[in-house]
């Protein structure tokens, strides 16, 4: 099956628990469609480069997905309908990297530096 990296930006006024619920729903949908989520990361509430639907910030969630194309089409269809989702992006990749993404690695490095 093809491999994808999928990122969702949700509205700033929803809670992190609602984002976790959204992540669980995405995982459940992909598993029902015959795929699997190999990697999930919550990047937190981050500033946007420009306003999107009057929002200056957004909750970012990242997925490493192994699923058929039909499952990704269904996921994107449902995300278009969801009012809590500002943007999403799906990119097909050759392999899903193990370990933290550059966003989380940078955050961990910053935490280590601040402890010193």
What does this entry look like structurally?
The chain has helices at residues 16-32, 69-81, 102-115, and strands spanning 3-11, 36-52, 55-66, 85-93. With 116 residues, the protein is an alpha+beta fold. It has a single domain, classed as Ribosomal protein S6/Translation elongation factor EF1B (Alpha-Beta Plaits), CATH 3.30.70. A hairpin with a 2-residue loop joins strand 2 and strand 3. The longest helix is centred in the first third of the chain and has 17 residues, at 16-32.
List the domain count as a whole number: 1
How is the main sheet built? Answer: 4 strands, antiparallel
CATH superfamily: Ribosomal protein S6/Translation elongation factor EF1B
Got a strand count? Answer: 4
CATH topology call: Alpha-Beta Plaits
Q: What distance separates the N and C termini?
A: 45 Å
What is this structure's SSE topology?
Elements: E1 3-11, H1 16-32, E2 36-52, E3 55-66, H2 69-81, E4 85-93, H3 102-115
Antiparallel strand pairs: 1-3, 1-4, 2-3
